[in-house]
Amino acid sequence: MKKAGKWGALLALTGMMLVAAGCGNSASPAANSSQPAASTPAPAANNSSGGSGAAEKKITLGFAQVGAESGWRTANTKSVQESAAAAGIDLKFSDAQQKQENQIKAIRSYIQQKVDVIAFSPVVESGWDTVLKEAKDAGIPVILTDRAVDSKDTSLYVTFLGSDFVEEGRKAGQWMLDQFKDATEDVNIVELQGTTGSAPANDRKAGFQEVIQSNPKLKIIASQTGDFTRAKGKEVMQAFLKAHKDIDVLYAHNDDMALGAIQAIEAAGLKPGVDIKIISVDAVKDGMQAASEGKINFIVECNPLLGPQLMEIVKNVVDGKQVEKRIVTKEGTFTSEQAKEALPTRQY
Ligand code: GYE
């Protein structure tokens, strides 16, 4: 198909779909409101000497990170490390290189070391019950940050702090609907999925699909994982371009894959953002730069700066205070023009 016109006319909904931070009643499946709070007891080491003398012993936090796959992750890691230091929390940090078995090992080692709290960003959604049960049995509270687990037993973790990825997918889908509402021919979409089995890949796909299905002209003609990396995004886009001559839109589950795909599109002699419209998620600096150059048409923001909120939660958990079961981060969206405006003050 060729263009639906009205390019640039819309986007009343851009900018501000801010979900209030700290509201514990998101629509995500993890938001299990029947379970109010931190059920795991605060470890004895921190409150043994009679009450609220928080100053005498440093809190130890074991953090099992996913890896270093993207600009988002780099910003997230930095945020966690800097805010732990600022909060006077002793941080034990590990990088799982996108492998679940490495994360499980790291969590077990934190249990052995008897850290006060464990936080982790689960690389995939499934397969955590055993190790989470081990942490629970050891009396160590676990905080999920950024990504969710699909465990039925939500008492295995204290809270889940992070974005609503289904909502992010919906925002991307809504842009498609608005942009192509007058399409008379099929609009061919290719999709670069995040890491297979990860919450953001599952949910960003589902939210997008849910919204675009109301217009039967919008067709996902190919969908494959690019593992959230630039290199794989490029590689898979090359394959898409070979196999499909009439790609109208790329939906990439993160900026890094979109940036890799842009290289492939340019190498094929096409103009990213013009010949192929591009939607991505994250809004990290490099993505915003590409958007401000018109190479990415629409970015859904996903905020990686979870560190300060995480440290607050850690302290509350150690103090035995109530913590919301689901804490959703604030985020918006950006068109190319908005990206240009926001870029100079962008923190990550
Ligand atoms: O969008 C992607 C990263 O889990 C929200 O992981 C995170 C995602 C982010 O690799 O860039």
Protein architecture, described:
The chain has 348 residues and is α/β, with parallel strands linked by helices. The protein has two domains: 60-163 and 305-330, Rossmann fold, CATH 3.40.50; 165-302, 3-Layer(aba) Sandwich (Rossmann fold), CATH 3.40.50. 36% of the residues lie in helices and 17% in strands. It contains eleven helices and twelve strands. The chain has a six-stranded parallel sheet, with helices on both faces. It has a six-stranded mixed sheet with strand order 7-6-8-9-10-12, with helices on both faces. Strand 9 (277-282), helix 9 (285-292) and strand 10 (298-301) form a beta-alpha-beta unit. 51% of the residues are buried. Mean pLDDT is 88; it is low at 2-54. It binds beta-D-fucofuranose. Beta-D-fucofuranose binds at residues 69-70, 72-73, 146-147, 200, 228, 254, 256, 281-282, 302.
Short description:
This protein is of the alpha/beta class and 348 residues long.
Low-confidence stretches: 2-54
What is the annotated CATH architecture of the largest domain? 3-Layer(aba) Sandwich
Mean pLDDT: 88
Describe the strand arrangement of the main beta sheet, using strand numbers. Answer: 2-1-3-4-5-11
As a percent range, the share of helical residues equals 25-40%
What shape does the CA trace take? Answer: elongated
DSSP summary, beta strand count: 12
